[in-house]
Amino acid sequence: MGNEKKVTSSKAASAASKVLRDGRTSKASKTAAGSALSQKPSKKK
């Protein structure tokens, strides 16, 4: 337990993004989607 870094895959991030953009989804769904996106590593250029 402890120091594992959790990273969201691109497919999961894409699905989470769709949930956030959809006005029909529940607050709980949006909270989960936001959490998933916050764990996605940022693109470094």
Question: Summed up, what is this model?
Answer:
This protein has 45 residues and is mainly alpha-helical. It is built from two helices and no strands. It has helices at residues 10-21, 27-38.
- What does the radius of gyration come to? 12 Å
Poorly predicted sequence stretches spanning 5 or more consecutive residues: none
The number of distinct helices, counting runs of at least 4 residues, comes to: 2
Strand percentage? under 5%
Question: What features would you highlight for this structure?
Answer:
45 residues, mainly alpha, 2 helices, 0% strand
Explain this structure to me?
- The chain is an all-alpha fold and 45 residues long.
- The longest helix has 12 residues, at 10-21.
- It contains two helices and no strands.
Secondary-structure topology with pairs:
Layout (H helix, E strand, L loop, with lengths): L9 H12 L5 H12 L7
Helix pairs in contact: 1-2
